[in-house]
């Protein structure tokens, strides 16, 4: 594992340090040529201007500063010079010309475009197939705003840095990723679109719960009983850990080959996660034209498991080596770290740990408290994996970030905070307050509650001690009190009356059997219902033998509350499953209590233990350790009231009338949709696609008609001359490492099969599979290959065919 002192890639930092090594490779391809040239230009110009230190292995922070300085310098250039730089990555607008970037007439002059040299608009491109003046490469750019121009220049610098990093990195997997991102940025600069990563890697977040959420849950789960100061310390320890992880430098999969801690399956999962980390977390930290995600917010248990051992060792070592740098009042973070890591390790290994359960959630009060503490206390010193104690808030520099990046960051922050808490806590708190107030203000409802569930009434009776629940049983080793015996006798009668098919002796035998217990519902000191059960702790389940409520008390909610008590009782004793043979008439009741005929336990777990009955149905209920069943209905009810209140609040916002837009009167030709006031507030998101007015919702289109149209498109696509690489699935025998890189393969044969099975119910599904064929191909193969060309050509043909049938949006 790497993750050593410097936060740089193992072989080469993406840091703005440039050499000349790009030039040789640059001759091989047009795009690379421009990049290498421009990259080396920056090197010389930096060195000559003296604004940037000479190339050397630097820390993450200094790398970021160098990149930012260089960008700022380019942003401050006169416009003519900026355009000259842009021209090197802009397609010639001369009709029929295919040149993708202007080249300086003298081979090495491009180096100076970032310092002194400013070519004339009339100077001719050195590219023999172009020879058009610089002007023809920028004619389409002269009208763009300053900020758009700076965005493009920022992306160009990112691209150049990527190219240089790619030249130096030794690891083939990493190199491939750099190349992919380089091409992506190159394409974005050419087309003036924002970089969006699509493809077989999937979209972040990749796992739920994310590491941040699980670590917060761990603090609650393990340390909530501590006093506030100790709890505060553990929270800071957890944050220090997350900070370390977010700056951790993961080792390439090839360097981990032979690592005994990784199974074969782990190794291939690690490879995918490593690629995701590079693409979404690590590279964008340096290339701010790409959207960046925090490692701890997009990855979960799978990634942490594969890196934890080595990473925690490193963190412990750092704690020791940096102990003296920590202010005295923060030393407890260092001393508590091993304990915290040990607890986290244990939860990582446990398959049923609640902290890794996506539904587990510390109570809101805890989350709010933690936030308050976080705001009140000055940020703790944290150990970054860069090796130095850094203030936790320092993270990455955002000085001079392009506007689009800031927007993207805001979106990213919104997405990640949405990922943790669906709505800002203040909004939820406001809704909760309003629900509570409406309850207290509506006095008549308190006296005569309308629409209150039976469960609430039973709970109210229980609170008033009008009814009681007791687990009772016979014993041969301990004295059994008279009251218990009387209740057992009463229960025996209840069961005998309500289950007339059961022989009385059999009921007596089991009710008084010492291995069986009965949960008794007592009213006025008489049993009015009960559940007789037998726990099998070694098997992890409890068998429900009899369950009944006296006739006069049925359908009042007692049966439900009895079952909820039994569930809580079982959970407290580590039992996670209830099994019963339900009478035909009682199946409906058991279904309502969460039982199902679908038995999730393997038969050997219960066969031979549970008593089997003819003409009864085996039913199973899985218990969730973090649910308090006796509170569950009330919680759900409360939540639904809060939801209703939130919907009402949102409704009020949507109804808000805003002043109209004045920007068009002021001469603006267009504005981004997202800048229209109120649109985001009602939930509009940039990625939402408009529904075309000319066609009804595709979901409502006749599926049979769609299927016929898809069949005809598929047939035409199959017969195209460029279709041959995609006709059937790629086999591992043909391309051994294909499935290491491509997680979601697709081909025309599979699409045909899916079409026959009726999978393509919507146009979107059909298009997504076809798009996957092309994106997989372009991800795996490089542009100079025949495969890549086939993908491009077939994709164009596919779009034409779809357009012919009116199935294409644009
Ligand atoms: N079939 C379908 N639904 C039922 C049945 C039934 N036999 N019994 C109750 N329910 C429903 C209720 O209508 C209610 O639904 P709702 O909340 O949507 O209105 C829900 O189940 C729970 O009702 P409760 O009032 O909480 O249950 P109750 O106190 O009536 O107790 C019980 C249910 C124990 C099944 C009771 O009706 C009874 O004693 N029945 C006779 C004995 C019996 O059949 N026991 C089960 C035999 S199987 C065995 O013991 C393993």
What is this structure's SSE topology?
Layout lengths: L21 H5 L3 H20 L10 H16 L3 H9 L47 H4 L7 H23 L3 H20 L19 H13 L4 H19 L17 H23 L8 H4 L2 H21 L9 H19 L14 H13 L4 E3 L5 E3 L11 H18 L4 H17 L1 H5 L6 H10 L3 E6 L9 H17 L5 H8 L5 E7 L2 E11 L4 E9 L8 H15 L4 E6 L4 H6 L10 H4 L10 E6 L6 H26 L48 H17 L18 H4 L6 H9 L6 H18 L5 H19 L6
Parallel strand pairs: 6-7
Antiparallel strand pairs: 1-2, 3-4, 4-5, 5-6, 7-8
Helix pairs in contact: 2-6, 3-6, 4-6, 6-7, 7-10, 8-9, 9-13, 12-13, 16-24, 19-20, 25-27, 25-29, 28-29
The protein binds acetyl coenzyme *A.
Acetyl coenzyme *A binds next to strand 6, helix 21, strand 7 and helix 22.
Tell me what you see in this structure:
This protein is an alpha+beta fold. Mean pLDDT is 79; it is low at 1-58, 377-421, 443-450 and 688-700. The chain has helices spanning 22-26, 30-49, 60-75, 79-87, 135-138, 146-168, 172-191, 211-223, 228-246, 264-286, 295-298, 301-321, 331-349, 364-376, 403-420, 425-441, 443-447, 454-463, 482-498, 504-511, 558-572, 587-592, 603-606, 629-654, 703-719, 738-741, 748-756, 763-780, 786-804, and strands at residues 381-383, 389-391, 467-472, 517-523, 526-536, 541-549, 577-582, 617-622. Acetyl coenzyme *A binds next to β6, α21, β7 and α22.
């Amino acid at each position: 594992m790497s993750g050593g002192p410097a936060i740089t890639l193992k072989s080469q930092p993406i840091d703005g340090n440039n050499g000349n090594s790009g030039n040789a490779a640059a001759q091989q391809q047009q795009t690379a040529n421009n990049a290498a040239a421009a990259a080396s230009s920056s090197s010389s110009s930096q060195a000559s201007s003296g604004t940037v230190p000479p190339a050397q292995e630097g820390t993450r922070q200094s790398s970021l500063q160098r990149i930012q300085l260089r960008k700022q310098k380019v942003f401050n250039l006169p416009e003519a010079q900026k355009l000259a730089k842009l021209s090197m990555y802009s397609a010639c607008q001369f009709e029929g010309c295919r040149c993708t970037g202007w080249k300086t007439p003298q081979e090495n002059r491009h180096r100076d475009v970032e310092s002194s040299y400013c070519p004339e608009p009339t100077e001719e491109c050195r590219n023999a197939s172009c020879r058009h003046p610089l002007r023809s490469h920028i004619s389409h750019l002269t009208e763009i705003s300053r900020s758009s121009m700076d965005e493009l220049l920022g992306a160009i610098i990112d691209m150049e840095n990527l190219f240089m990093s790619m030249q130096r990195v030794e690891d083939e997997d990493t190199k491939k990723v750099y190349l992919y991102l380089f091409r992506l940025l190159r394409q974005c600069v050419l087309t003036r679109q924002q970089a969006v990563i699509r493809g077989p890697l999937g979209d972040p977040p990749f796992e739920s719960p994310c590491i941040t959420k699980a670590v917060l849950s761990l603090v609650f789960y393990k340390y909530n009983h501590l006093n506030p100061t100790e709890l505060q310390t553990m929270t800071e320890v957890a944050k220090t850990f997350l900070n370390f992880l977010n700056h951790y430098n993961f080792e390439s999969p090839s360097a981990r080959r032979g690592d005994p801690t990784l199974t074969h399956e782990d190794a291939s999962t690690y490879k995918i996660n490593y690629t995701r980390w590079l693409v979404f977390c690590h590279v964008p930290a340096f290339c701010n034209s790409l959207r960046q995600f925090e490692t701890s917010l997009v990855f979960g248990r799978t990634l942490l498991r594969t890196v934890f051992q080595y990473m925690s060792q490193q963190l412990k070592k750092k704690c020791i080596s940096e102990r003296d740098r920590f202010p005295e009042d923060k030393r407890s973070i260092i001393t508590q770290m091993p304990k915290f890591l040990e607890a986290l390790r244990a939860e990582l290994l446990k398959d049923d740990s609640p902290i890794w359960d996506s539904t587990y959630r510390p109570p809101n009060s805890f989350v709010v408290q933690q936030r308050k503490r976080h705001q009140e206390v000055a940020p703790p010193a944290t150990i970054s994996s860069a090796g130095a104690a850094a203030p936790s808030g320092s993270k990455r520099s955002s000085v001079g970030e392009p506007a689009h990046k800031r927007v993207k960051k805001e979106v990213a922050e919104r997405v990640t905070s949405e990922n943790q808490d669906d709505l800002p806590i203040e909004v939820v708190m406001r809704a909760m307050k309003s629900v509570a107030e409406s309850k207290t203000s509506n006095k008549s409802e308190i006296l005569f509650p309308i629409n209150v569930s039976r469960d609430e009434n039973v709970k109210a009776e229980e609170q008033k001690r009008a009814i009681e629940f007791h687990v009772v049983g016979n014993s041969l080793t301990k004295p059994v009190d008279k009251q218990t015996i009387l209740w057992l006798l009463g229960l025996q009668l209840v069961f005998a009356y309500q289950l007339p098919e059961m022989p009385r002796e059999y009921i007596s035998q089991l009710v008084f059997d010492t291995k069986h217990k009965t949960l008794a519902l007592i009213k006025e000191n008489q049993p009015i219902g009960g559940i007789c059960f037998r726990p099998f702790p070694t098997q992890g389940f409890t068998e429900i033998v009899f369950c009944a409520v006296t006739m006069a008390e049925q359908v009042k909610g007692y049966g439900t509350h009895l079952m909820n008590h039994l569930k809580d009782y079982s959970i407290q004793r580590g039992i996670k499953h209830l099994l019963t043979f339900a009478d035909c008439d009682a199946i409906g009741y058991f279904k309502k209590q969460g039982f199902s005929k679908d038995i999730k336990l393997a038969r050997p777990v219960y066969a031979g233990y549970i008593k089997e009955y003819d003409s009864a149905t085996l039913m199973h209920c899985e218990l969730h350790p973090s649910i308090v069943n006796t509170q569950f209905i009330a919680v759900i009810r409360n939540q639904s009231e809060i939801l209703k209140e939130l919907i009402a609040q949102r409704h009020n916002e949507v109804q808000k009338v805003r002043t109209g837009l004045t920007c068009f009167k002021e001469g603006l030709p267009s504005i981004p949709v997202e800048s229209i006031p109120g649109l985001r507030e009602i939930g509009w998101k940039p990625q939402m696609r408009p529904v075309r007015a000319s066609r009804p919702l595709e979901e409502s289109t006749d599926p049979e008609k769609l299927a016929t149209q898809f069949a005809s498109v598929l047939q035409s696509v199959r017969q195209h001359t460029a279709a041959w690489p995609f006709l059937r699935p790629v086999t591992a025998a043909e391309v051994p490492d294909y499935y290491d890189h491509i997680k979601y393969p697709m081909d025309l044969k599979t699409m045909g099969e899916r079409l026959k099975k009726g999978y393509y119910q919507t146009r979107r599904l059909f298009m997504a599979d076809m798009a996957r064929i092309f994106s997989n191909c372009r991800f795996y193969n490089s542009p100079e290959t025949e495969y890549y060309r086939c993908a491009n050509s077939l994709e164009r043909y596919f779009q034409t065919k779809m357009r012919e049938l009116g199935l294409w949006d644009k």
